[in-house]
Design goal:
Layout: H1 3-33, H2 50-53, H3 59-90, H4 93-104, H5 111-122, H6 127-133, H7 145-169, H8 173-181, H9 186-197, H10 199-214, H11 218-223, H12 231-241, H13 245-273
Amino acid sequence: MSPRLRTTLLLAPATVWLLAMLVLPLVVVAVFSFGERAAAGGYSAAFSLENFANLGTRWAAFKNTLMLAPAGTVLCLLIAYPLAYFLAVRADPKWRTLLLILVIVPFWTSILIRSYAWIYLLGGQGVPKLVGLLGFGSPRLVNTPFAVLIGIVYGYLPLMVFPIFVSLERLDKRLLEASADLGSPPWRSFLQVTLPLSMPGVATGCMLVFILLMGEFLIPAMLGGGKVFFVGNALVDLFLQSRNWPFGAAVAVALVVIMLVTVTAYMRLTRRWAGGRDDVSLM
């Protein structure tokens, strides 16, 4: 058997799976986006650009997604990096496994139950009531962008912590010792050694969180209360409520294009910032 034929046979199952589960659904969605809504809802075959021309009617959903998804990613990064650094570098190895388990404990509970818990905490009987008892008024927290960001950070933080933790755990501690021996203060060693070498984990964590947030719909629906909605909420409404499949498909195609452009630009910027290192592209 020739090497080319052997390689083809080995890649055939994965290729068929990729085509059937990823490429084919995207093709179907793209075809639907040029159709028309049937009289009873659903899809009617046609070729029209009207659905793309009407994307502006969903601008609020796109704006919320493009603002809160990057903001949530940055917040997750700012909280996850110190936590991952502590777990990988400072924590006692005897307790490291237990601490890692505590990070993923929230994943053992349904996101629906966790969201309901935050609705209570941010509602009138939770934090606002406590703040009111302290004499600082009664702020409105639930059904706001702030509540959505809280839910995003709480729900997606582990996905940011673990890639960064892996990168920091693999860090050769002798490099930090050498930097200290050469007279570098701790902050300079961090900026010149630790941070650049942990960039693969940072890039991977940011991509995991950002891509999932772009399609998020449960957290905005529950903590946003219908006042803060993402593109995912618009898609649920278009496909399941109004049954306007062609317009929903056009919104989905626009979202995919935005994600591709954003992710490509981010990967190029990250690679350039890291000096063209190939190991940054772990995602």
